[in-house]
Amino acid sequence: MSKPTINPEALKQFAVVSNELLNLMRAVNLDGQARSAESKANESSSSDSNSASQESFITAPNSLEDSLEYSFGSLNITASQWEEIDRETAPLPEEKPIEYSFGSLNITASQWEEIDRETAPLPEEKPMSATTEDRPRKARQPSISTTDPLTSSTYSTKKTTPDIKPGEALGEVQIHTKYRFSPSVLAHHANTACEKMLHLKGAELWAKSQRPKHQDTKDNSPGTIAQAHQERGLDYEARLQQKIQKKIDCESQRDEDSFFRLATSEIGTTLCQPIFSLDDSFYTPEMTQAGIEFGRFIPDFIRIVAGSKRRDGTCRNRLFIIDAKSSLQVKISHQFQVTLYAIFLDHLIKLNKQQDNIEIDIQGGVWIPSDPEPKTFSLSFMRPIVERFMLEELPAILSKPLKNAEWHIDGPCGQCEFLPRCRVDAETQKTLSLIPLLSKRSALWIKGLMSPTSRSEIEDLEDLVKNRHNLSAIQQTSLEDILYIDGRGNSILLESYRSRKSKVLPLRTLELPMKHNERLLVNALFNPLHRLPYAYSLDQCREQQFLPTRTLANAIGLSNNPEVSRMDHIALTEEFVDALHGFLVQISNLQHPPVLSIFFYSRSTQNDVQKLLLKIVSKESEYQWKVTTKTRAMELLGNMYEDADFLTMSEVAGQNIQMPDLLGLTNNPSLKTLVHDKRVFAIEAAIHALLVLPSSNSYSYPNIMTQLVDIEAPGIIDERDRDDQGYNNDSIYESWVQGKRGPEVMCKVKKWAEQQNVILLTLYGVLRDECKDLGSILLAPQKTFRMRSRLNVNDSILAQFAYFLEWETIVQVQRLRERRVLLSKQDSFAQQASFELSFVERVGNVRLVSKTSAYIAKFIVTSQLNPGALANDSFPNWILSADTEEGQRSRMKYDDMKDVLNIYGYGAPAVVGIESVVYDKNIVYVKGSYDAMTVQLGVDVDKKFILERREYAPNLNTTLKKLVAMNTESKLFLELITDPNKWGLESPKFSNDVFLESILSSTRQYDMTTSQDHAFTRVIRQRMNIIWGPPGSGKTQFLALTILRYIDIMRGLSLKGQGKGPQTIVLTALTHSAIDNLVARVLKLHETVAPHAGYESMIRPLLIYRIGGYNQAQGQQEGVITMSAADFAAKHTKHEDPRDQDVVRIVCGTVWGIRKAAFAKTPALCLQNIQMLMIDEGSQLLTVDALHAIECLDPDAGRLIVAGDHLQLGPVIVGDYPPSSQTIDPTGSIMKNLMRTAKNKRVDLQWDENRLALDVGPCTSQLQDNFRMNKQLGEFMQSIYGPSFRVQNPTKALPYGEFRGMSFPAEIRKILDRDLSATCVELQLTTDRQCQAAVKVRANTRTAAIVEAAFVAGLVDYYLTMVGAQTVTSVFVAVPHHVQRLAILNAVDLDRLAQDYPLAKIKVDTIEKMQGQEADFVVVGFALFGDATVTKELRHLYSVHRWVVALSRARCKTVLLMTPEMLSPRIVDGGSSPSAADMDYLDGWGLLHAFEKYSRETGGKTVYPIGREFLELLQL
Predict the structure, then answer these.
(1) Cβ contact 1023:1198 at 8 Å
(2) Which of 210, 687, 806, 1400 could form a Cys-Cys staple with 662, CB 3.0–4.6 A?
(3) Which candidate, 1260, 1161, 1166, 1253, places its Cα nearest to that of 1205?
(4) What percent of the chain is helix, strand and coil (3-state, nearest 5)?
(5) CA distances from 399 to 288, 395, 624, 1181 (A)
(6) pLDDT tens digits, residue range 710-724?
(7) pLDDT tens, 780-805?
(8) Under 8 Å CB-to-CB from 470, ≥6 apart: which residues?
């Protein structure tokens, strides 16, 4: 690259400033500011390999010149030229400030000093990357064909490892008194939660800000991957800026100008790179005392949207803050950074008194390349978390000495620039960081158990292990689990540290196959700019062979010609895909295919290849790929990467996707035995799962080579082939951009692949030496390799439903298998995942001894048995095995998938069902086949057995067959699901006659409310109506009235000779109980709603059939004909005479019962063209299940009614599925998929100023009468369901006959006050660190549940005392977790309460089980004190659907128990931080805050301290 020509005049003008800067440099004493040698950071690639340019802290130089240059604007000036400028020029006194170009930004000389201070690096150190907040910069121009970033190789800082001197250990570092931060640095802390990093980075940035920029040195070494990511980030920002139509580029403006733009810009305008600064008024005294300072901050984009209205009716400018990141997904750190911008801007708005003109949006945005628009998140949720960190935690961290900062070398530290320093500190200080596999959270917990001494942490840990019997039982168990302490008291982790040798962990895993006939090692190295490979290798090996039987590799050189480079990358990518596909096809086509395992060295490479394949199949790919390459890429995805992402594949690849038939059922529906194998593995992950290496942090390649291969297989690799430091992506990339030719790079990759093979075989060798039976620990399912066929379902929508069914089954099987494999026996008993049984006797007809005859055995449960853990379930959903070593092996090797379709299993363990359970006596009756119980198990008196759940999916094949058949059969379901509004708004046949009859003739006075009558009119006039029934809105009542009123209309028309022929009304729902409740309500109303005078003869007995669902305990419902599906079908096999106009029948059953009757061998013809289908619990019934009933509708005259509440809990699914922008959700309920806005878009939850804003579309009718709640509770529900959800019984109150609580504590009296219906109790645990009980409560969920249970038990007792023994009342206690439910059941003496208060109904259960029920007094328990628990379960705890159910059960009073940890969870906690995907499920947090605020405003908020005395009473 040639140097630019320097204009002498420009140099003279430039010297005006340069002379001042040089004088300033000489005046500043930099010695005290200089950073110690050990903090010359190892600038490894950013932990977010896809983050935008601002997160890596690495400067991107603009050239590779050999001479040292200082870049100042557009001028590159060498060090020798600086001296000449200094001698020959002088300042120009009293002259107008001259402007100099810094990129495209013109700034005056007076502003240079400030900019220099903010951007200058420390001396003797590689320049750090300028973050967005450090300096204004112009986003680079987007890459085009003439400047393809694939060819860029001139930006990088060489990755080095600084030498750390012993004298520079942690304890001897001088304490800094000033710290400077940018939002990106603090956001990085959200990933690591490292106090030491904050100290070191803040001090470094402060020193950097005190140095003139032109003293910076530049490292002209070639590029690293981190530098390439930085370049890609700048390119992405530039592309976004070009994409935005209405914008203002603010980079050339001053801070005050950018702020002025916030108030004056038109709505719809986007400000690009606005520049702001904070003044001293922002800092609290604590921040000032800690020496905290922030530099300029520059959000990427601020979009001006319409805000709230002023008094004059005009809108304020609302600021929607957007940060651009070139990541593949949004991270917590990205959201943290946007939240910081929001806090800073909010301060500036208040400082400038612009609240009437400007406001901050309640949502922030992160814009990543995969999304057409920014991905939004809740600023309301993030803001208190970030404010607490910035205003409280950060000053506290920086106010203490560096040596007291909390830190630990953990996985996230792998990319930290200070890692070399920390390793030296760990060795010098002998900290817990030296213990392998010890996470930061575990290390901090262990430190809390150790008493402070003058000795090292390692010595203190040795003492703790030796004296662990002094700990509580919970602490002792936890310590043994963390350190892998065996029965002899030896810790595997400590032994590995002491001996410096690898150790095998006593674990079972699915991360490594037990055996394979063939293995394929896949390596691909990517140019990070566009994520295309520049080198690859494929090696096929026999099971025990070191050398491959077949190998293929290639690499390209780095061309300086952009077009040549582009074509080279594309050609190599297509070659790689073709080669990999060819390997798999060749193996699959063998006459006797082997068991094949595909190995990547690391998860990151495995994921990179998957992203590459997705890029190829993408409909919006930036490259032109061959058709064969796209087809093969799709096949590779289906054969290597089957996962839930296929459900959103159409968003990437369009509608013409080929989803794999994972189980083979759509192509071979006669299969009885299914097999699903795990094909892809990562070598690093397997080592982590099975071995302890004497190394802190993650296992690096040099660690594995020196501590595993060199010790276990010394001399196996020729030393001439060793390059432990060079075999990694970053080093090979550096050598590639240096100019190494393709063959040289290829040779290096092949050598690396050979050594990966050696590592893998060495791992197997160690495991064989240590383990007698590899099959007992390596449990990944395997089978011979065949390329999978695609789903035999042509329509892309139906294919997604088919894939969802197969994948959900696979996930359920995997979850059960993982729990069986990974949990110890005692943990499994404690979690109620398995049960220990002791055989007593055989019961029933003991004379039947044939192999297939039923064998019912009586067992005593000798392990823990919690109420409800074993439901009476005649389905064979369980396996029973002997409690022996052989029985354990049979359990571990049991393949649930093999028997997932079979009612009986084959071999051991035995497949059984639960006949009945007697909980008070711990007795369970188990039903199995005679052969299984006697021959396979050999049941005998007092013999022990283990009972565990298995997966049984009898309806899987049925539904898949239906989806395949729909390729050619009825398209009704497809028409409906594609455009529900179009289908639903059409008038059914004869609708005019029916409507007129409903108006002119009225058999009975039904007294429907206004909203009910409106909904009924839609039922009559439209083909489809969604009945949105909020809690307590009388949904069941309305459905029953609709059925009776429709029957009356049909009979009225029949009497007039206008009958429409036989009518069949089908009632279905997810559960039998919901069906029975609806039928009972129909029967009751039929008797109680009296006819008008003269119409008595028209009211005739109802003809109701109930298919299945007969409950012997409850008995048969009077007036209902109960029969099996087969019997109903046999009775209705003939075609009916259409002249028989008076036949109106109601058929009730689950969708499976209806399907069996409608499509039996001799089908019930009356169910094949039904006139009305009513689906209750539509928000809980999966769409793919509902299609069985929907396909029975009369295509011309049929009416569809779906009732439910989409804001309450939906279908129960096991898998975690990616969020999708698709209108049709294959994982969603039938109600969710049929509710569409007027524009045929799906109805999404959106919060608008503390309330939900919903557009439910033209086919949805909301019932707007709240019959359940009193005025205060009903008003809160209006914030969810809208102001039209009106309370009908406002005066409901708790049934206190007389006041009996004068002696109660004041807090209890307030909580039970009948006038405070919305009560929020904040349980605040003592912060006394000396209180060991409080430490236990925070650290252990079970202990916390005991504290909550004690409070609940007392509260229920107080309430029932207030009510009295002679008053009818009901009490619910609803909690999110079973562990809370069990603790409360143990604390609440239900038997005593039932005896003392016989008229009181008391129920304790999870929130899911409370849906559809109500009570006078409801206690909702979310008293979780552990930050880790809350953070780990954000999706579960903050699900808006769960919160809607929990807060809507009460008639008179809701008492919410919660904690400060629930109100403001500490998500910034390093390893326990949630993913950004979890943050998409936080609408429930908004509802929690809304209820807390409402309770506070109405006087119902109570703070209840949980102190040492309370905890001591519990004897935790």
Answers:
(1) yes
(2) 806
(3) 1260
(4) 45, 15, 40
(5) 10, 6, 57, 56
(6) 888 887 887 777 887
(7) 888 899 999 989 988 888 999 999 99
(8) none
